[in-house]
Amino acid sequence: MTETTRRDEIAAGLAKVEAEIAEACRAVGRTRRELTLIAVSKTYPASDVRLLAELGVTDVGENRDQEASAKARECADLGLVWHFIGQLQTNKVRSVIGYADVVHSVDRPRLVAALSQEALRVGREITCLVQVALDGDPARGGVPPQDVPALAEAVAGSGGIRLGGVMAVAPLGEEPSRAFARLREIAQVVRDAHPGADAISAGMSGDMSQAIANGATHLRVGTALLGRRKPFVR
C-alpha cells in the first residue's frame, strides 16, 4: 500500500470515528471538547502514528511495552501524549515511565509504589488511572469496585504520580451501557474524594457511543481508526 493510500484510509477511519463521537455527544448534550480520542496503535507501525499525527491526533495508546517504547522513540519528535493502557508488570515500570504520560492500568498497591518511585527518580509526573474490574476477572486486570477508593487514595498520596480518575473495559457478554453506568458511579465516588480526578477512560471501537452517554472522557480506539489488526512482527 502506498503512503498516500494509507493516509487516505486512516483519514477516512478518523472521519467516521469523529462523526460517531459527534452524534453521540449530540444525543446526550455533551461537547466534543469534553472527550480525548486515544488512537490505539498496537500492532501498527510507527508510520501509521505519524500519519495520525499529521491528521491532528495528539494522543496515542499502547498496551505492550516492548512495542510502545520503540514506537515512542521513533515518534519522539511529534510531541504526542502517550498512554499506556495494557496490564503493567512492575519490571516494566522503568521503561514505561520513560515515555508514557498517562498509565491507565493501575490496579494494585505494589504497582503504585513502583510507579511513584521511578517517576520521582527521573523527575517526571505521570497521570495514573485506577483500572476497575467490572467483571471480576483478574486475568483482564483491574481492581474490584469496592477496593477502588483505597487504591485511589494510595495514588493520590504518592509522589511523582497524579490521580487522574478511572478506567475500565466493558465485560464480555454484558450490555456496555450497564457496565459504563456502574463505572460512572464508581468514578463519582473517586471524584467526590479527589475533585481533580475527573477522567473516565472507557469506550473502544464497538462501544464508543455507550461510553460517551455514561460520561467517558477518554476513548481508546484502534480498529475503527486503523483497520483490523495483524499479528505484530518486529
Automatic annotation (TrEMBL):
Cofactor(s) listed: pyridoxal 5'-phosphate
Pfam families from the UniProt entry: Ala_racemase_N (PF01168)
Species, as recorded: Streptosporangium subroseum
Protein name as it appears in the record: Pyridoxal phosphate homeostasis protein
Sequence similarity: Belongs to the pyridoxal phosphate-binding protein YggS/PROSC family.
Coiled coil: none
Cited function: Pyridoxal 5'-phosphate (PLP)-binding protein, which is involved in PLP homeostasis.
Gene Ontology MF terms in the entry: pyridoxal phosphate binding
Domain Alanine racemase N-terminal: 30-228
Positions of post-translational N6-(pyridoxal phosphate)lysine modification: K42
Gene3D superfamilies: Alanine racemase
Keywords attached to this entry: Pyridoxal phosphate
